[in-house]
């Protein structure tokens, strides 16, 4: 697999690695939709409970995602360099830290779930459901983190199809057991919101066990070993510093959308609903590009590790061109069918349909620039420049988008349309800013293999001690 990534046709390599990742991303979206569909049929309070829980859960998962991304970067670069034993040591260490981290977050999450939900102002059934949902998810967080980290480590060495099949398995299983635990069946009582959490832990727990077996046996060339699980705190510190910017990057994006909700709330319920629908459509639209960016972490990481920097640069350039033209084309399609697209989510409210369609029409022609930003984020992460990827998010979503949203909506005659134009302008500026950082070439100077020196003597000592 390493040779096929660091040699041969670039276009073929991109499609080979990116396609299963994109499919897995769509399947993950389907997984979340299944929960929403079944809970929506149970009660509106159940949907509200999960919605209330999401920001707290997302923050916890984002922090864990930092370790996951750091593991992917390191595994990809050392695998590209042909350092198989070091790859196994890194995988073992990353999994060890994720276990400790998940236990810590599980305990903390269970302790703060009640007080945090109380602070939100929620009451009654909604508050009880949110607390119950959070406590169950936090209790099984080791399986949730395991589900993601095992997939990421496999992708780091270029194994992308197997994780896709695992995600497909969890989607099918979740679809079957979700209604059983939510509504009850036979001797299984109706758990409501808690049932959705139980189904999530069961499906992702089983997937984690399957993936753990694969790693223990070393089926795909990457193996976790007990003898490599002696904690190395200097390595932990480096992994934390590498992964923490990625954790913040996820949080910055979500935080910016939350800030804008406070601004747009002053223009009425219809505008808020239009904003929610339009942003949901945007998130669905960028799924393929996010998958491509995840693939870029592997492609760039392995080529950088193999010393093939020029190839990593060419891969990034071709991927950017692909993303730009693909999303630009989709932008024109979305612009032409903006009204029917909004009607899918809210078919009866004329004002919301009109405003949501206007939002789509203004932003759609800038979709290509979003593609450039997302793909280059994957390039910077793959090369180990996680701070650069974070800088792009802060620039685009906070400095440019939020500032423009405030100025254009409150200090110009545009009003709510100022927020729509702020999205369009921030997409363009974010795309140009990302391109400027890429073309500067500074990202190519990052030396992850030198920064994460792993002595051969240390590995031999651990093997002998074992």
Description:
The structure is a single chain. The chain has 466 residues and is an all-alpha fold. The protein has two domains: 2-231, no CATH class; 249-451, no CATH class. Helices cover 84% and strands 0% of the residues. It is built from 19 helices and no strands. It has helices at residues 2-6, 10-42, 44-80, 84-119, 124-139, 141-156, 161-183, 193-217, 233-264, 269-285, 287-305, 309-336, 338-345, 350-364, 367-382, 386-410, 416-440, 448-451, 456-465. Helix 3 runs parallel beside helix 11 and helix 10 crosses helix 14 (350-364). The model has no long low-confidence stretch (mean pLDDT 87).
Short descriptors:
single chain, 466 residues, mainly alpha, globular
End-to-end gap: 30 Å
Biggest beta sheet summary: none
Low-confidence stretches: none
- Level of helix content? over 70%
Number of domains: 2
Strand percentage lies at under 5%
Rough outline: globular
What would the average pLDDT be, to the nearest integer?
87
Query: How many strands in all?
Result: 0
User: Number of DSSP helices?
Assistant: 19
Radius of gyration: 22 Å
Strand and helix order: HHHHHHHHHHHHHHHHHHH
The SS-based structural class is mainly alpha
């Amino acid at each position: 697999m390493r040779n096929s990534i660091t040699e041969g046709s670039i276009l073929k390599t991109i499609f080979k690695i990116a396609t299963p990742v994109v499919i897995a991303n769509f399947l993950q979206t389907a997984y979340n939709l299944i929960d929403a569909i079944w809970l929506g049929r149970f009660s509106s309070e159940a949907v509200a409970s999960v919605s209330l829980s999401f920001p707290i859960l997302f923050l916890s998962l984002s922090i864990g995602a930092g370790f996951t991304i750091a593991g992917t970067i390191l595994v990809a670069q050392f695998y590209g360099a042909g350092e198989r034993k070091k790859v196994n040591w890194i995988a073992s260490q990353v999994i060890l830290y994720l276990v400790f981290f998940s236990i810590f977050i599980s305990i903390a999450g269970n302790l703060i779930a009640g007080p945090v939900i109380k602070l939100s102002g929620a009451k009654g059934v909604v508050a009880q459901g949110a607390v119950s949902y959070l406590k169950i998810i936090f209790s099984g967080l080791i399986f949730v983190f395991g589900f993601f980290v095992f997939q990421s480590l496999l992708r780091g060495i270029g194994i992308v199809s197997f994780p896709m099949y695992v995600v497909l398995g969890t989607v099918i299983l979740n679809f079957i057991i979700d209604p059983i635990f939510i509504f009850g069946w036979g001797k299984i009582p109706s758990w409501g919101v808690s049932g959705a959490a139980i189904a999530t832990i069961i499906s992702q727990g089983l997937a984690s066990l399957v993936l753990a077996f694969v790693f223990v046996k070393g089926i795909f060339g990457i193996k976790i070993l007990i003898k490599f699980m002696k904690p190395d705190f200097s390595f932990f510190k480096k992994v934390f510093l590498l992964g923490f910017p990625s954790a913040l990057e996820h949080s910055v994006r979500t935080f910016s959308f939350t800030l804008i909700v406070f601004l747009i709330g002053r223009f009425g319920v219809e505008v808020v609903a239009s904003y929610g629908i339009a942003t949901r459509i945007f998130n669905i639209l960028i799924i393929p590009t996010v998958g491509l960016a995840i693939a870029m972490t592997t492609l760039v990481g392995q080529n950088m590790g193999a010393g093939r920097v020029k190839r990593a640069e060419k891969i990034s350039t071709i991927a950017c061109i692909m993303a730009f033209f693909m999303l630009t084309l989709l932008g024109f399609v979305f612009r032409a069918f903006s009204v029917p697209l909004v009607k899918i989510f809210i078919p009866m409210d004329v004002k919301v349909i009109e405003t949501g369609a206007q939002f789509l029409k203004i932003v759609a022609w800038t979709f290509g620039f979003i593609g450039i930003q997302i793909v280059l984020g994957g390039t910077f992460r793959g090369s180990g420049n996680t701070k650069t990827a974070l800088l792009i998010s802060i620039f685009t979503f906070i400095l440019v988008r939020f500032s423009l949203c405030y100025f254009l909506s409150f200090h110009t005659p545009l009003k709510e349309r100022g927020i729509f134009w702020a999205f369009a302008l921030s997409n363009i500026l974010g795309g140009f800013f990302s391109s400027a950082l890429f073309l500067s070439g500074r990202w190519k100077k990052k030396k992850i293999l030198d920064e994460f020196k792993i002595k051969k003597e240390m590995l031999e000592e651990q093997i002998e001690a074992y």
